[in-house]
Amino acid sequence: MTVFILRRLLQSVGVLFATSIIVFLGVFAIGNPADILIAADATQAERQAAIVSLGLDRPLLEQYWIFLSNALQGDLGRSFVFNQPAIGLILARLPATLELAFVALFIALAAGIPLGLIAGLKPQTIVDETIMTGSILGFSLPNFWQGMMLIMIFSVWLGWLPAGGRGETVQVLGISTSLLSWDGIAHLILPATNLALFNLALVIRLTRTGVREIMPLDFIKFARAKGLTERRIVLVHVLKNIMIPVVTVVGMEFGSIIAFAVVTETIFSWPGIGKLLIDSIMLLDRPVVVSYLLVVVFMFIVINLLVDIAYSLLDPRIRLRDSQ
Amino acid sequence: MPRIRMLLLGLALSSCLTTVAMAVDLTVGSSTEPAAIDPHFSRSGNSQQIAAQVFNRLVEPDENLQIQPGLAVSWENLDELTWEVKLREGVTFHDGSPFTAEDVVFSLERADEIPNSPAPFTANVAPIAAMEIVDPLTIRFTTTKPTPQFMELAGLVFIVSKAAAEGASIEAFNSGEAAIGTGPYKFASWTPGDRYTLVRNDDYWGKAPQFENVTYRLMSNSAARVAALLAGDVDLIDAVPPGDIATLEASDGVQLHTTASGRIIYLGLDSARDESPFVTGPDGALLNPNPLKDVRVREAMSKMIDRQLLIDRVLSGAGTPAGQLAPAGLGGHAVSLQPDQIDIEAAKALLAEAGLPDGFGITIHSSNDRFPGDGDVAQALGQLFQRGGLTVNGVVTQPYNVYATAAGKQEFSAFIFSFGTTTPSAAPGMTNVLMTFDEAAGTGSFNRMRYSNPEYDAAMRAALAEFDPATRNRLLEIAAEIAFHDYAILPLYWPEVTWASREGIGYIANTSEDTLATYASVTE
Asked: Could you list the residue range(s) of the whole structural domain that residue A190 is in?
């Protein structure tokens, strides 16, 4: 298993290198940062000076070479917009996004698995129909619209929860979290729900299908014959067997939640990295875009690895091996 | 809600204890975020918004962009190359240290030395050849050449504390350690992407600031700003989208504050080349000569545009039709230049006179995320030109980051752009957009049309060399008449900018589009 993990991490270096080339070329293809960043009323001399100081006057290959040699020394460059280390900007906002994503994932699992179990155990009843119809809404309503509706109902009409922004944060081990104050949690509820709804629907459906598939199988009949309580059958034997597809999908989705929480972050003015990415693409802030995507790719690699490890823990028949 | 309750409490208290300063806070939903707290890092509007409250300048622009005495109380020309500036007495920095001529000299020297700055104040301090401190409150400036706009340039550079800012990194400013100014509010904190906060400077030399604490919540999404105002999370929002104005007007307890902006939205026409990439004949081949070179064709196109209709339909009425670059109130606005009315007969006659009775083919390009309605304006223009007798081959809109680069490389024939004036006169726009593209002379850096008219250039040079402000404005008007009778660009409209506030909070709508706590007030 250790060899497997090491080999995976080595492969990730190659992936990161390829990503850096693609993104570097991609941003170059979109446009010239100088046309966006430099003030509209700048004189020719100011323009030229700014272009030189940002290194944009050099050939693309040379710019990439400078980036690469700095990156190998751990320096991913300074943001064109903020003139701060790009990786620092990203890491400063990562906790806010991670917090939002974890809470959203928690909501999706904590509500989705029980609802899916209920629907799966009582198929074709009014309860099942209600849950399944509800989950269609979670799939089909656009995320953006859901967010606006949550704000309209809970902030504007009822006035229960704030309409956006991050509340009071508390520093724990150098990381700021809003989970430890009521103001922080109040600000977190709506965006986390908004981000959770799609995955909630997904988890309900996966769980229900899994339950429907497993309930008629022989080992369940055997367990019943053995005299196990229904409670133990569902919570241990059924649940363990439906977890593999749920873990796979949720693992992949968690990466997407972090990387593409931007819609929710924009509607709720949440100071996370999604918003930083969109702003950086708009302003062609190449160091930030490249660093961000490198961080995200790395995150996906780690999540995939964790999902693979979770498989082998859930199902001892699965061995962690590279396919040769 | 608690904020409003506090506000009402404040009002109640103030009515019995009128002499006691009210402890009222202000929360702003802001559409833009600064790039840095260092006031010299970026000259762009989003970064200046915070700087304008924490720092002062030698002269301060008012809500109509006209300059008023700031840290300088008076200034005069001893001769064409020498300016003597008297500084305000008894001003202290936020750390209690006194403000002196040393700080001014330091700030002006620092302004063009900020590493990696995308929008430095280089041009503002470029005319300075030497600075001499006559006494702690008097500075004598020598300029490299006669510079009538000296105070509009050097005077608009923010003054930082020499003791705090000397050798300070951008991080030291962002943390607040070096962000020591003389302005009405002190910098308290900045959480990027989330908020920045200011506290009142009780020792401010000017009009006493009204708010104890000011919080700017950073909300780039306009729907989120409107919702936050309606939910009572914020007291004031900026950049209200035209589509939401009617909703907010109908809401209880919301006030709107509107003014015309100094930003011109115009259609640029590629009028210098013999062949333009999107101007075609009936057979689809590029036309040579390019009809846009002919002033009659440009005039005909201007007469095809129903500007009022465009504003009413696309912008819900939030704009003023434009016939020139400078809106009324700014130096260089010529009353004689009225926007063209739609006149299709005249347009057809002009086209026939130019030898193009059947029109020609054209494609219109625009950004779609730069200012409210930009993509829709392009669509509407396409229909207006089609109705006017041209063959519109397409309307292409792109994200600004792609569009701006391509437009800078002259890849378009007819393209929508904007230029925002933030100075007392329209001279910067008239220099950078309309004068001949000339890197050496530093003119025409945004002349994407490559329009070039020696008569206009000469008129501009005369205006820029004039010391008397009134005469300079008159000369700018003459130059404007030359350029717009020549249809150098087709001006479309000046958009209105709108702020919305909770009842009880007043706001001075300003041409510079700044959202400043100093423009907000508690009303009865």
From this structure: 92-314
